[in-house]
Structure formats: structure tokens, C-alpha cells
Amino acid sequence: MHWKNNSLEGFWKRQCLLLILVQISLLTICWQFGLVQGKPLLNIVTISCLVTWVGVTIWIFYRIITQVKSSYLRSTFQLESCRNQDFSQQAKAHFSAGVVGQFHHQLNNLSNDLLTSKESENKDSILLLRLVKQLNTPILVFDERLQLSFGNQACGALFDKPWQTLRFTTAARLGLEHLPDWHFKDEKNQQRWQVRHSNFNHNGHTYHLLVMTDIQIALREQELKAWQRLIRVISHEIRNSLTPVSTMLERLKHRATSERDSAAFEVIVERCQHLAEFVKRYAQLQQSVTVKAYEQPFERVCTELTSLFPQANWHLEGQHLQLYCDATLLKQVLINLTKNALEACTDRPQLTLSLKLKNQSATISLTDNGHGLSNPDNLFVPFYSTKERGEGIGLMLCQHLTEQMNGQLLLMNRTDGHRGACAVISLTQPTS
């Protein structure tokens, strides 16, 4: 029974037994025909027996060699698949027991372990790739020839087109230089973007990883924090002074004996209220903002905005499109911008609100026919305002809210030959 097991050893023993039985049978035949008794050797029976014996011996050894070779050839094919990172291919063992069977079993276990490890690595790679794609920081990967190999979604805002259309483009054509350190050749981009560089190896090749950091956003965040600290101190001092002053004014106003004194007290009370409102509005910059973005029709935003300002003579474009945004924050920004636009229009106001989607980016434009911008450089500076009673907070708050939505707000004069200004809000859209 031991010889019937499916192993190379059992197969060898069975073939040897078969060879012994054949030899015994041939010797018995030769004995019967008188080979051992001294009869003539060269007869047909003797020659046939010898030929049969040699043929059976060769056939048995050929079978042994073929089976052994076949077993290891299957292992060779499986190892070749493993070398090519294909761990799903497993050779079926001809011998399920014995040394060869154990070898195949261990080889299959190794393939299964490598397959599990590869699947886990692929899952981690997919998760990392999805994370990189969703980052708002542009990330570029260049190969050894300094050609673009990979980019994330944020590269669309950097180059104004999807990175897939720029694949295999050289770094020089993208405006980048790698000596002595990676940097932009264009002075404007160099002042805005900080380039961080590192190398990594993959499949025997070296790649260059570039991470772009928008310095302007970081500077504005630091500037905003500084203003918040200043506003916190000023608000505290002003409120401490306004409270007793307002109380005394209310008492003195009732004691006024002349209209001139009453009018003076009214002016003082009105200016105290204005100062309190001024402090209250600037305190909005210290409030934390929670962004709740979801996809919704842009028509909903347009409807609410036009109902609030029916005097604007609206012209709407792209209201049928879907927009991924925080509707509450976006409407607050558009309301502030619309108020500024209407105040800038001395004649019959004409406002245009449009939405365009391109390369995972949404561009919302609000255009007016007012007098335009007289000093664009100081638009987002706190306490700066061209209005007679402006606090210099509206545009800075709009910029702050837009950046909290991972967007960008730009204000410029119209470039289509007409008088007026244009506010452009750019929001990143998730990949579908």
C-alpha cells in the first residue's frame, strides 16, 4: 500500500518493481526455450526477449525522467510568473506527496503569501493615490529624463489644464529648472510657489517628487492671525470704553435743555453705535468656519441671490450646471460682492453672474458696470476702504471664506472694453 501513494518515491518503486517483473518474465521465457540449458543462443525467441527487455528498461527510465522533468518544469513556470509579479499562477503538482509534493506545496504557499502581500500593497497604493489626488497642493513626479510622469488634480490650477494632457512633457517646457535646486523660471510663479524636492526609486528607476506650496496663502494665514490678535485687543479696549460712555450719554441726553445739545448727543450716540457695529463686524474674522460642501444646482444659488437684489438687472449664465460647494458660505460671499458691485454702479446697474466648469475647477464670475477699481493692490487690506463709511472688512471676509472652501478670490477691472469690475471665485471640484 505504501507504493500506491502519489509521490516520486512511490512512482520510482513501482517502475523498479515493473522492471524486475519484466526481467523475471523474460528469464522464465528464456529458460523454457533452453537458453540456460545450453541450447543455441541465436534464435528468434532469445533475440526477441533481449530486445523486449532493453526496450522496457529504456521506456521505464524514460518515464521516470519525463515525470521528474515535468514536475520541475511546472515549478519553473510558476517561478517565472512570480518573477514577473504574477503570483496568481500556481502549477498543479503531478506528485501530491513526497519530496516533490512538499516542494510544490511550499512553492504554492509562497505564491499565496506574496499575492496577499501584493494585494495589501496595492490597496495601500490606491489609498495613497486617492489621497494625493484630493490634496489641494500640486504634486508632480518626473522620471529620469525629467519628463512628467504623474500629477494630481491640483496641477490643473497650476497649469490651467489637466496633468494628463501634459504627460511626458519636459520640466523645462513646464517652466521648471532643476539646477541648482528645483524652481520656477518665471519670477511671478517663483514668488508664489515654494518647490520642495525629493527622490524615490521604483522598479529600478529614480523619480523626482515635487511638492508645490502656495506661499501667498500661508502668508495670508499668518497675516490674518496677526490681524485677529490685533482686533481682539482693540475690540476689548473699545468695548470697555463704549459701555460706560453709552450709559452716561443716555443719562445726559435726557437732561439736555436745548435742541443743539440734543442734536450733539444724538450724533455722539450714533457714532458710538457705529463703532460698536464696526467692532462686531471685525470680530467675524475670529469666528471658526465649518465647511459643509455638497453637490447642488447652481440655479438655487442664483434664485436666492436675484431675489435679494432684484434691482441689479441680472444676466445669468451656467445656472443649469451642478456645483460642489458650501452653499451658505458661497451665498454670503456673493451677497457681499453684490453689495459692493451695486454701490459702485452710479447709473442703471447691470450685473452678470456666470458659472463655468473646466478641468475639475469651477469659476464663478460676478461682473458689474460700475466705475471699476481705483486701487486694486489694497483691496484685501484690513481697515482700508474707498467708501465714505466703509470699514474695510467686507472683501477681506470674502477672501477668508473663499479660502476656507479651498478656493481663490480675485478682483480686477473688466478687460472686455467696458467699464466696471469683475470678481472671480475659483473652487476645486472633486473628480467624478
From TrEMBL:
| Record keyword Transit peptide present | no
Q: Which GO terms describe its molecular function?
A: ATP binding
Keyword line: ATP-binding, Membrane, Nucleotide-binding, Phosphoprotein, Transmembrane, Transmembrane helix
The UniProt transmembrane annotation reads 16-35, 41-65
Could you tell me which Gene3D superfamilies the record lists for this protein? 1.10.287.130, Histidine kinase-like ATPase, C-terminal domain
* Top enzyme class: transferase
- EC number(s) in its UniProt entry? 2.7.13.3
Decide whether keyword Phosphoprotein is in the record: yes
Short name of any one Pfam family annotated for the protein: HATPase_c
User: Residue ranges of the Histidine kinase domain?
Assistant: 233-431
Q: What is the catalytic activity of this protein? A: ATP + protein L-histidine = ADP + protein N-phospho-L-histidine
This one is known as: histidine kinase
Q: What lineage does UniProt assign to this protein's organism?
A: Bacteria, Pseudomonadati, Pseudomonadota, Gammaproteobacteria, Alteromonadales
